[in-house]
Amino acid sequence: MNTPHTWNAADCVTKTYYRGIGWYRQSCTVPAELAGRMLYLQFAGVNQVADVWVNGKHVGRHKGGYSRFRFPVTGVLVPGQDNVIAVKVNNAHDPDIAPLSADFSFDGGIYRNVSLHAVDPLQVQMLDLAGPGVYLRQRDVSANSATVTVTTKLWNHHTDARSASVRTVITDATGTVIADQRTAAREMAPGTGADVVQTVTVSRPRLWNGVTDPYLYQANVEVHDATGGADTITDAVTEPLGLRTFKLDPATGFHLNGKPLGLHGVSLHQDLADKGWALSDADRARDFDLIQDLGANTVRMAHYQHDQNDYNLADERGIVVWAEIPLVDTVTASTGFTESTQNQLHELIRQNYNHPSIVFWGIGNEQRKDDTATNTLLGSLADIVMAEDPDRISAYADDSGTWDVGIRRHSQTFGGNQYYGWDDGGSIHDDLGEWADTVHENDPTRPLGLSEYGAGANTAHHALNPSSVDAESQWHPEEYQALFHEAAWQQLATRPFIWGTYVWNMFDFASSWRNEGGQPGINDKGLVTRDRAVRKDAFYFYRANWSTAPTLYITSRRWTRRTDAATELKVYSNADTVSATLNGSSLGGRSSASRIFRWTGVTLQPGPNTVVVTATINGETHTDTVTWSLA
After folding, report:
1. Which of 222, 239, 347, 366 is catalytic?
2. 472 part of the active site
3. Are residues 349 and 433 both part of a single domain?
């Protein structure tokens, strides 16, 4: 069986999707030249309990469905001969592993990549919670200089003592060396480790400046064996280095490199039609292409640790990231659940510490009870963030409508998951802005974000300016989602104290228990359909507001068969003025400060009707056209 793979690619949209045990078996021949090196099997993601055997010997168990893990297999996986690797995977409900429940399907299987790592016994530690073993802490970053503390977890697995040193080389995007430092050799006893700490300075750094300039350096760390006067490189690790500063201000929001930057973006799930969770790197790159095309500058990677490639893409494209653990909905007071959840946070931070895109560590989402067990756990998680990474910001996503809730007090900031205009009966109103004002007025010293907001849409459902939609009904017209986001963004854009906003969701995704909007098993709040084939009208509303790319888009374009001659024409554009024609006759021009252009009182004639809109954007002429047929 090839990986990535999930056995729930097809049935994850059904209420009876399989949650249980699956087996994988692979024969492999390890090259003979790897004899003498230490071998580690690495799994990028297995949901959710994995037991691994090599040649019949159990080499380890990992609990938790989203983090990377490694098992040492030296002496068990034999170079130069055939070996058999067997993996037992279980995605059944486990009361000791988060998430216990959530609004998404829990696909089972080895749904991310598997790799074999061969490393010299004198190495950067491979078993530090599957982290890189090299940690880059930025200090005193400015336009003049940046100081970086480089901690390398060095380990000697030899049976004799070794004289070891560490060299750190910082290179810029062209590969030019801009800093080079090497420690004096130190004696390391067999079977021991040491943290080697170096401080390097980058003069006049080019800062990682979000989507404007996501500039990356590289930190290259070498382990040198100087035993007996030799100088042999035994191991090397390269990590991204994006130099930046950030802060939250309760009144003015998020600041990057000393300047205000309104964060506006989306939440992201690892789910794709016909593949479930078993996405390829090409799938992830396409998703980030769409996020960039939208004009988003931040992503909440919900509700769990994502594949490393997602964080790499965010680094490279300047997307600010809210990363989080899968503590969703329900908490149990058991020791096993507490330890497992804490371990998932340790793994998230260690494995992703060096990604410059990550600003927020999320410690939980929508806990159902504000009780002692929940608060004790959340308090411990906030303490872990402070101990592991005091330079970043702990965050919590809360769905209560009130401002004074205990469970949101543990993190340094919180975001509201608010669905005014959808879950509360589905009518357009100003409650979202009123909620934000109330929270801000009652808690003015605490930074406030909006971690979720959205409405569903089936691209096959249409209605002219629907005034309300029942979220649980089978009727989710695309036009209502567009109206919802028009109203929501109007409220959010005028409140700079909201440091960040995240549309729920970038893509439709599988949620087995749902049965609404004419699509059983689908949460249809995405701005793009689950198969990535259709960008909904609301996508282009945000593109017109967030992106500098020329945007000219006629809405309701999929409503091609009409029965009512009276209609309106609505266009999203970042042009100053837009002109329109219907069947070759002018409808006139419109101007708009909201990026929404409307022609009311439009009358269709029987048969096909061709609408053409034209605008000049950045000195170039752009057009869009649709055909609507009146029966």
Report:
1. 366
2. no
3. yes
